Amino acid sequence: MTTATPLDFATVDLATVDLGDASYFADGPPHELFRRMREEEPVHWSPARNWATTPGFWSITRPEDIRTVSLDWKTFSSEAGGAALSNDEIFLAFQRSGIIGMDPPRHDRLKGLFQRGFTPKRVADHEPMIRGIVRRKLDEIEGMGTIDIVEDFTPGIVARVFGSLVSYGPELDENMSQVASFAFNAIAAGEDMDEAVQEWVVWLVKSALALVNERRENPCDDLVSALLEAEIDGERLNTAEIIAIIAILITGGNDSTRSVFAGGLYELLRHPDQFQALVDDPEKIPTAIEELLRLHPAFAHFARTATKDVELGGKTIKRGDKVVLWYPSANMDEATHPCPHALDIERCPEHQTFGAGGRHFCLGAALARLQLKILFEETLARYPEMTLAGDVEWMASPVTPGLSHLPVRLGPAHRS
Ligand code: HEM
Fold first, then answer.
1. From ligand 1's centre to the CA of 10, what distance in Å?
2. How far apart are CA 138 and CA 374, in angstroms?
3. Which residues are the signal sequence here (predicted)?
4. Do the Cβ atoms of 306 and 41 come closer than 8 Å?
5. Closest protein CA for atom 38 of ligand 1
6. pLDDT of 5
7. What is the pLDDT of residues 198-254, one digit of tens each?
8. Are 377 and 285 within 8 A, CB to CB?
9. What is the 3-state secondary structure (H, E, C) of 42-71?
């Protein structure tokens, strides 16, 4: 079941539109509205009526404009106002200590340190570990008949992959998985977030601190030990920086991968011929994943803040204004993708699901792609007769606009 959206997006006066309103996302991203905005007002001011800390923001909906903003960090800063719509002070401080809320040169130095560990080649080393986790979860659900992919399947998998990378035990998986969802729900909720967020932030910081202390005592060949050893310009990272990095990895990579898997699987189940094509020829899965990423970007937006007055799309963006980059809109641009709403697993499109280039391009793209590849390969091989088992529900979030429920009938389990 989905909730009815309050507006007719085909006719609404764009001057009254406020894309920070979560109800616009009740049935997933408001694609008809985005289409009109790309056509009629590609740089658009929203008043942000639901956001206590943000007086308003510019929405950027065309892929080429999103790219321009993403590439020009001097004019469009991540540090000045963070990468989120909210200007909440706690969030800002949090983002500025992790790489998402930094500008060069600090950002370059920290990201450079990380990129070495997240290249496709280094990430590929984790394939056996990820495949083992996915297979164990598939064993667990065997015989369950009907399950909700979002609630019963993916959380345990992605949280365990992170647990293995960041070296925390399975006893933390559930909370780690929830802290990510909670952070994004709280960001999306705008003004109500302070108290609840503080509680989760404290939990996350304490857990990360315990990890760091443990690795100081007992270093091993894992990410936290590597961070403790790492030096930037001859200086070690301090504990607060390491904690912020762990937190950004857990929150950035958890819900996102789950969301693309659920959205992508939904897309395939609605198109049984294309589902079958992947069952018959799993070699096509990596190409298909690019199309699924295009159709289901896990994040609706990230933001920047203008550091000077600048013209874009015929509008003057003032110094200090927040600029919001809407990836679901870019991915549906008709000029770039003919018949953008159609699923075509052979298309292999360019998309902005991991960002539009520039310094903040997703650090975890290779890891996310590998996890998605293994998830689709193993799930389709084990349950080649899977079908939809009811209506889906959406998050209704302008931050993470994916599915909140995806009921499926597993069908008979196949074992090779
Ligand atoms: C399908 C899953 C994923 C999606 C759709 C996604 C999407 C994104 C997007 C849109 C950005 C911002 C790009 C920009 O502002 O230009 C981003 C940044 C980031 N992502 Fe991902 N991400 C995913 C998975 C992951 C994973 C698995 C990790 C963990 C390793 C991760 C870690 C990060 C980090 C650390 C940043 C900040 C990079 C920076 O500021 O330089 N992401 N991601």
1. 32
2. 12
3. none
4. no
5. 360
6. 53
7. 777 788 888 989 999 999 999 887 888 888 888 777 888 888 888 888 888 887 778
8. yes
9. CEEEECCCCCCCCCCEEEECCHHHHHHHHH
Q: Which atom of ligand 1 sits closest to the CA of residue 358?
A: 16
Using CA atoms, how far residue 383 sits from 20, 109, 328, in Å, is 39, 44, 29
Mutate to test the pocket of ligand 1, among 354, 369, 373 (most ligand atoms within 8 A of CB): 354
Please list, in sequence order, all residues whose beta carbon lies within 8 angstroms of the beta carbon of residue 249, skipping any fewer than 6 positions away.
162, 165, 166, 364
Return the domain boundaries, the chain: 29-409
Could you tell me the fold of the domain covering 29-409? Answer: Cytochrome p450 (1.10.630)
Give the DSSP letter string of 152-199.
IIHHHHHHHHHHHHHT--GGGHHHHHHHHHHHHHHHHHGGG-HHHHHH
Which two three-digit tokens encode residue 139? 């064993």
Q: Indicate whether residue 299 lines ligand 1 (CB < 6 A).
A: yes
Q: Distance (Å, rounded) from C-alpha 52 to C-alpha 106?
A: 30
Q: Is 28 helix (H, G, I), strand (E, B) or coil?
A: strand
As a residue count, the chain comes to 416
* Residue 42 in this model has a pLDDT that exceeds 50: yes
